[in-house]
Amino acid sequence: MTTVALRALDRVAGRAETLDNGLRVVLLPQNGAESIVVALCYRAGSRDEEPGECGLAHFLEHMMFKGSAAYEPGAIDRLTQGLGGTNNAFTSHDATLYHFQFERGSWQEALRIESDRMRGLSLLPAEVALEREVILEEIRMVEDDPWDALEQAVAGRIFGDHPYGRSVLGTRESLRALDAEALRSFHRRHYRPGRAVLVCAGGLPPDAMEKIEATLGAVRRESRSAAPPVGGSEDPRTQSLRVELRRGETPRLLIAHPAPAPDDPAHVHLRLALAVLCTGRSSRVQRDLVEEDPLALWASAAVTGHRLGGMATLSAEAAPGVPPERLEEELCVRIEGLANRPPDAGELERAKRILFADWVFLHEPIAERAMTAALEHALFSPGFSRDSFRQLAGAAGSDVAGACSAWLSPETRVVGWSLPAARPLPPGRRGHVR
Description:
Layout: H1 3-6, E1 15-18, E2 24-29, E3 35-42, H2 56-63, H3 75-82, E4 86-91, E5 96-103, H4 108-119, H5 125-144, H6 146-159, H7 172-177, H8 180-190, E6 196-202, H9 208-215, E7 242-246, E8 252-259, H10 265-278, H11 284-292, E9 296-303, E10 310-318, H12 324-340, H13 345-362, H14 366-379, H15 384-394, H16 397-407, E11 414-419
Parallel strand pairs: 2-6, 7-11
Antiparallel strand pairs: 1-2, 3-5, 3-6, 4-5, 8-10, 8-11, 9-10
Helix pairs in contact: 2-8, 10-13, 10-15, 10-16, 12-16
């Protein structure tokens, strides 16, 4: 990884300014671009929900498209489509992000939309009821999907009562208890200029900042401070356990461990460890358990980037006829073996290049760059991606082995299985990983 390669990280670096009302604005101009992305990120997610509000942050995300003073229900989507643009949004445990992409002549429409709905929403009872049913269907789809259901069950074991252990969608019971007043209260507490970061990227005009200030800068600053996140700063980790579900026709394995926060240097070393283990055909798990001795049809690894600490996972789908307990045992052997046999120079360089290339390819679209910049400024710090890859470039094999020993040990492990109804694990195997 050379200095020249690291210049690609400048894609999410730009001019930043804080308006008088507290809104953080970041501009990412791109010469020759014919479109502009407007991404607005609020520091408010499901971790900010109070008792009895489970699913409220995500519910509000839906309602942000269902009417405000200047836009009747459905008008935002019709206007976006009529102008040839796109819009979308997502809610995480730590933040909620909205983004529009328009051609250069129409981009200010996104500013007007965000300014209007930051001031307040209509929250018509009929629209609230309709959108509640949409989210209830989302919950049903997650419950019916073997991988989604398994991941949520395992997260509940990893994080316990911490908000990270709950689904962003909420539950059927919690959704039915949420009404327009609950949505209005969450909006009032969190959807304010001082709790938000606006990123505009693409073919920006020279007076872009002035146009932003004329619209979103006019939104009144709230004098009262928001309540601290319900999750606080407590350690979300819990004791290791086993999870067994009955879904689908194929044995699915999910091994999970608590992970450090993304701004902890150990997070970079853990990402490298997972790449050495399971990213690319020459990684240890792929080579041993998918290619040479096919115990699994496929395998993958990932780590979530929750602000207070996440979850590292290795997933695999058992090959036909392979006993689930054998796949589990062999995968655990590979995980624990990395602590005793650090990656050599070739393995380490391959893992670094894969992680860097994945980031570069993901951020080819302007929209991805805008969203990453918004999350960097909202949850971490400007230049967070660059700092992380500098740490990555300097990591040694001993750092990877140390991360494996500290974060992927049997003592912190949760093993989750999604099995066909007629295929229980042997009783003796249940105690192998506590």
